[in-house]
């Protein structure tokens, strides 16, 4: 089965086939990881985003990775946290599943995810980590071609949460 791991750092520096971006529905760029990816990857990414147009929450689209070491960027739109009863969990699960599906369709087998929705969109970090780990495990158990999934945590809080949760899983 694919290796699921956590690392701390900047996703724009990670050498994988595909890095996932936590975008908005307009694919308009923004702050956080989205801003970092467009800055580091250069204007070719935005040029493709403009051609695509928009991406609904819970869905994913793919573009070039520009100057990034990755081959492609997969842009997904996480849910804005509205208290947890507005389908947030299902939408966040869908972000991970749709991104991995798109990666497979493009023969991209090593994938790095940021902690989608846990910045500006306000999804509680522990809950988001549970959803992310469950969604990824569910997918990789059924899709053997995925070689590696990295959770790239930028902030220390997310890193500690993922480390703890992934360690607990391997010791079960
Ligand atoms: N590498 C990896 N993770 C990062 C990086 C980086 N370089 N920079 C920040 N993070 P956010 P969201 C982490 O706000 O909550 C944007 O403006 C950060 O610590 O980037 O899904 C978009 O355009 C946090 O844990 O994304 C949307 O409008 C995580 O990335 C909106 O924000 C996600 O935080 C999306 O909000």
How would you sum up this structure, described in words?
The chain has one domain: Leucine Aminopeptidase, subunit E, domain 1. 41% of the residues lie in helices and 18% in strands. The protein is built from 5 helices and 6 strands, in the order ββααββαβαβα. It has helices at residues 32-41, 43-52, 88-105, 125-142, 156-170; strands at residues 3-8, 18-22, 60-64, 72-76, 110-113, 148-153. Strands 1-6-5-2-4-3 form a 6-stranded mixed sheet, sandwiched between helices. α3 (88-105) runs parallel beside α4 (125-142) and α4 (125-142) crosses α5 (156-170). 45% of the residues are buried. Ligand AR6 is lined by residues 10-12, 22-24, 30-34, 36, 78, 114-121, 152, 154-155, 158. This is O-acetyl-ADP-ribose deacetylase.
Show the helix and strand layout:
Blueprint: E1 3-8, E2 18-22, H1 32-41, H2 43-52, E3 60-64, E4 72-76, H3 88-105, E5 110-113, H4 125-142, E6 148-153, H5 156-170
Parallel strand pairs: 1-6, 2-4, 2-5, 5-6
Antiparallel strand pairs: 3-4
Helix pairs in contact: 3-4, 4-5
The chain binds ligand AR6.
Ligand AR6 binds next to helix 1.
Protein name: O-acetyl-ADP-ribose deacetylase
Pfam family, one: Macro
Organism: Novibacillus thermophilus
Q: Roughly how much helix do the residues carry, as a percent range?
A: 40-55%
Largest sheet report:
6 strands, mixed
Order of strands in the sheet with most strands: 1-6-5-2-4-3
In the CATH hierarchy, the third-tier topology is known as Leucine Aminopeptidase, subunit E, domain 1
Task: Write out the distinct hetero groups bound to the structure.
Answer: ligand AR6
CATH architecture: 3-Layer(aba) Sandwich
Q: Could you give the count of β-strands?
A: 6
Strand content: 15-25%
Low-confidence stretches: none
- So what's the CATH class? Alpha Beta
- Radius of gyration computed on alpha carbons: 15 Å
What is the string of SSEs from the N terminus onward?
EEHHEEHEHEH
Tell the overall outline: globular
- State the distance separating the first and last CA atoms: 17 Å
Number of domains: 1
Task: Supply the helix-strand structural class.
Answer: alpha/beta
Counted by DSSP, the helix tally is: 5
Q: Can you give the mean pLDDT?
A: 97
> CATH superfamily name?
Leucine Aminopeptidase, subunit E, domain 1
């Amino acid at each position: 089965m694919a290796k699921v791991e956590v690392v701390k750092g900047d996703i724009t520096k990670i050498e994988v086939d595909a890095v996932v971006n936590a975008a908005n529905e307009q694919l308009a760029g923004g702050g956080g990881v989205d801003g970092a990816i467009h800055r580091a990857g250069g204007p070719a990414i935005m040029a493709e985003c403009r051609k695509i147009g928009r991406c609904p929450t819970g869905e994913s689209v793919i573009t070039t990775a520009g100057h990034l070491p990755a081959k492609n960027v997969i842009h997904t739109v996480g849910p804005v946290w509205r208290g947890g009863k507005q389908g947030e969990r299902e939408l966040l699960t869908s972000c991970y599943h749709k991104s991995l599906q798109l990666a497979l369709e493009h023969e991209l087998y090593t994938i790095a995810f940021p902690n989608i929705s846990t910045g500006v969109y306000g999804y509680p970090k522990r809950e988001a980590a549970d959803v992310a780990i469950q969604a990824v495990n569910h997918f990789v158990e059924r899709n053997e071609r995925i070689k590696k999934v990295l959770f790239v945590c930028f902030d220390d809080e997310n890193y500690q949460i993922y480390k703890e949760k992934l360690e607990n899983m391997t010791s079960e």
